[in-house]
Amino acid sequence: MAKRIDFHTHIMPLDLPNFEEKYGGGRWPVLEQKCSCGADIMVAGKLFREVTDQVWDVKKRIEDMDRENVDMQVISPVPVTFSYWAPIEQALELSIYQNDFIANIVKENPDRFIGLGTIPLQNPEVAIQEMRRCKEIGLVGIEIGTNVNGENLDSDELLPVFKAAEELEMPLFIHPWETLAQNRTPRHNFLYTVGMPSETALAAASLVWSGVMEKCPNLKICFAHGGGSFPYILPRLDQGWNVWPDKRKTEHPPSYYTKNFYFDSLVYDPQNINYLIERFGHDKIIMGSDYPFLLREINPGKVLDEMDTLTDEVKDAIFGENALNFLNIKKEDVVANGQSNAKA
């Protein structure tokens, strides 16, 4: 049986510096600990999200993994910390702090954790430099947001970043943040249930329609939350490409450029899992739970476990092998209970 790797998990240092006090600006995420077991993430003096000690406590995290039958977690920053809006020197400082924090956790627990970094996309040149440093300190990929200050990911300024990720073999995990229609989604918590999936679809559509994926044919990208609504609107994108030839930017329709798209399994429903498998192939689906937040799947991979229509081979791939393939980690570098110190 393959090792179970939870690809979609977030972490945040308890001692995250208070950049609001240091630099001002009002939009920095500030972690205010309420007790030993919980804290509030504050933004501009308002509650952004209540979190538990699972967000920062590695020991607690490992206890949860053992209880929930997870061999390894791929850990990445909490998206609110991207801070693409900030002055580049300040945003870089925050990126470095988080990247070093994650790299140290991986170094201290190489059998339990794999790390993804973050880069300040508001300055592509600096972002590429930090991406290179992430690789040097042992991080195997980069988590990025779905837009940069309202600009979609097909912005011309961002193409060098995608080219660099392709060259460095640093796969990208794209997670929604600063979602569209924010003025229409606060009610009913639609920001999380409607806004995030729609935001992810817009990001994915931008990459396939614009020619980014055509120009970066070897770039690997994984989308959070099963790709949001993207898998279900992909035929509509193709139809648009067919009927509007004057809008085309690529030689082939959008669906042609999804060959290196991966999707986490966080869709909560067997029918949606089957749809992802049928459209993209089981080798492109990676188990992910969104630990430790409220909308996460407990236990990680619960829906997959309950699907008797999937073979053991397919389940082994989704539970662990696909994550390793996506992250360019060789199976032989996975030892004992997880990943060795060897670089892929």
Automatic annotation (TrEMBL):
Keyword Metal-binding applies:
yes
Q: Name one Pfam family in it.
A: Amidohydro_2
Question: Gene3D superfamilies of this UniProt entry?
Answer: Metal-dependent hydrolases (3.20.20.140)
According to the UniProt entry, its GO molecular function terms are:
aminocarboxymuconate-semialdehyde decarboxylase activity; hydrolase activity; metal ion binding
InterPro entries attached to this UniProt entry: ACMSD, Amidohydro-rel, Metal_Hydrolase
Keyword list (alphabetical) reads: Decarboxylase, Lyase, Metal-binding, Zinc
Annotated Amidohydrolase-related domain residues: 5-328
Where does it sit, as one GO cellular component term? cytosol
| Pathway assigned to this chain's UniProt record | Secondary metabolite metabolism; quinolate metabolism
Q: What class of enzyme is it?
A: lyase
**What EC number(s) is this enzyme filed under?**
4.1.1.45
What does the entry give for GO biological process? secondary metabolic process
User: What is the annotated quaternary arrangement, including any partners?
Assistant: Monomer.
Q: Which family does it belong to?
A: Belongs to the metallo-dependent hydrolases superfamily. ACMSD family.
Q: What is this protein called?
A: 2-amino-3-carboxymuconate-6-semialdehyde decarboxylase
Please tell me the species this chain comes from: Ureibacillus acetophenoni
